[in-house]
Amino acid sequence: MQRKSVIFVADSLDNARVFKLALTGLDVDIASGSSAQLQRLLQQHPDYDLVIYEATNDSGEKLAQVEKLLSHEGSGALLIIVSQAHLNEFRFPVQVKSDFVVQGASVEECSARIRQLLWPGNETASSDYLTVDNMTINLATYQVKVGGEPIDFTYLEYALLAFLVTHPGRTYSRDALLRRVWGFDYYGGSRTVDVHVRRVRSKLGPELSQRLETVRGVGYLWNS
User: Fold this and answer.
1) pTM
2) 107: nearest Cα among 50, 37, 26, 5
3) Closest CA to 223 of 179, 171, 177, 175
4) Overall average pLDDT of the 49-76 stretch
């Protein structure tokens, strides 16, 4: 494998320890620093291949600034460390190749995501793509495009859409969607599903949104 350059940016020791172990044994050169040093690190290492960025306490606005900075400074990828509490508002960057891990993920998972971004090997398998009309969902990179243009979904909006599209023609109740998509006991009530469905529909546009059907008194289904 070709040797790669990694910039690791974090303000907490916990993530630094985990990713030090995840990077051990990989064929990489590592430069590290705090979030305040990110721009300087990018300037010092203009040929970087990957930035690992701790966004556990960052606002969406701060992450957008990081995305803009990376899109101007180079063509490397971005791996974002996200806290469980911020998943609901997390948005995938659309200007840089990216992936994410939830804070507390195992060393093995972190290492696997780093390897996928640095040494992706062959083109993504065709099975990783779902195409419906003019919409393409890349299940490997969590990205959705409509008419060739990337759609700015939050993680949970993406997860809801991807789940329904991969289970077409089957109606799921709101409680079932909370269990299958959110993946943990959610105490905010099933109304959150309705809110996310409305957001997904508005972003898909009038034609595609008609496929995300409401089954009165039951829940939602994706009509293929």
Assistant:
1) 0.61
2) 26
3) 171
4) 83
